[in-house]
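Lab notebook, bench 4. The sequencing result for the construct came back, and we need a structural model before the next group meeting so we can plan mutations. Quick request posted to the team channel:

Model the 3D structure of this chain.
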Amino acid sequence: MGDLIMPDEKPVEEVDVTKEWRATHGQKSAAARLRIFAAIAWFIAIGTEIAGIVMLRQHRFDHGNLPLLIGLLVVIAVFAIGGSLMWKAANKHDPARQSDTARFFFQNQLGAIITVIAFLPLIVLILMDKDMDTKNKKIAGGIGIVLAAAATFIGIDFNPPSVEQYTKDMNSCAAQIKANQPTTACSPEVAEQAKAIAADSKTVADATKDAAHPNGQDVVYWIAPENGAKKAATPHVFHICKGVSPLKGKTVNQGSVTEAYAENATRITKQIPMEQKQCGFGAAAATDKAVTTNAA
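Done. Here's the predicted structure in token form:
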């Protein structure tokens, strides 16, 4: 193992990279519902477009029915925009990874893509229709272009969320909680998990208090990732010292709770009292030593 950098050696402005943000069950459920509603809205928009194309083919708008054609365009716009807004809201609950470039683009810009699909064929057919009254063609085509442009603009996500951004926000939020600072980074999407990180850090600090470290320590131990990997394939448990039973005979890494999370050691031991005795920390260890002394 290489030398590990302890938290107090890091630049103050650096944000720790802890465990990766993941959507909770509630967030995934909310995203799924919103995406279903968005799909329904887009289905109606495209269905309305198809109805308009059929009517054009039937020459329903050659010499009249302009209000009907404009109405169809408005309906397409309303449902395309509604679908885009719901899809954006779903992405806030369950974003894509920025590192997955193709998925990140299509997931975040799907609203704009669907809007173009819902408008473009109908607008092209209107403008190319040789049988439609010229004045009506210009009016309908102009309105269609304006509505399509507005709906597409609304469908574009200019600042899309990502797993990476939420991870950074979550870590900043956790750092603010631990430092008792104003929680300016704690958006609703990341606050719950940031609180869990801060709670784990506090639990470790409380468990490792002794005469030499009255405020506890931010040092934990975990099984090193397999085959020299930077991050374990499955979540590991982290412990409060190297000498605990589960780590015997294992290749062990040590570092802060932050560094443990970075290597996918994201579960704190459930055997705190037992490990305090084995490691010589806290009241549990002191009580154990007193009992041994009295027995002697």
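The chain has three domains: 25-161, 163-199, 208-296.
Will bring this to the meeting.
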